[in-house]
Amino acid sequence: MSKFNSQIQSAIDTFDADKARVLLREALQDSPDAETYYLASLVAINAQQQRKFLDKALELDPFHPAAHAALEQLDSGKGLSAAPSTPAEPPAAPAPPVAVVAPPPRTCTTTGSVHYRDRRNQQRTQGLPLAHRPQAHDAAS
pTM of the full predicted structure? Predict the structure, then answer.
């Protein structure tokens, strides 16, 4: 096992592909193994490069399970993703609904009475029946 593999894996887990590629260059020159080539496939630039790295990983270790799975995924047309090896955090709970609040009522400058539309908006937001709607007891009579 290459001494860089754990550093490369942590760079991939934190989605730092540039750092992973720098470490991979050193690891591939120093002492590459199947795992190193598999990790290189996770940050490959295109599908052709991914396939090349996966083939090399399987050449070094024909029983590398992750390389086999990744190659099957690549062959099926789904491609590879550099997903972290640890499961992602569950999504946050949705935000509570926002209450609709009517603006403060406008008043007439001369008489001081509340404008008709503002009175209706206040009734609507407070859950009160509108003035022009018949009440339940009015409709029965």
Answer: 0.54
What architecture does CATH give domain 5-75? Alpha Horseshoe (1.25)
pLDDT, position 85: 44
In 3D space, the residue among 16, 120, 54, 38 whose CA is nearest the CA of residue 27 turns out to be 38
What residue ranges do the domains of the chain occupy?
Answer: 5-75, 98-133
Q: How far is CA 134 from CA 99, 131, 137, 141, in A?
A: 27, 8, 8, 11
The three-state secondary structure class of 107 is strand
pLDDT tens track for 13-28: 998 889 999 998 898 8
DSSP helix/strand/coil, 105: coil
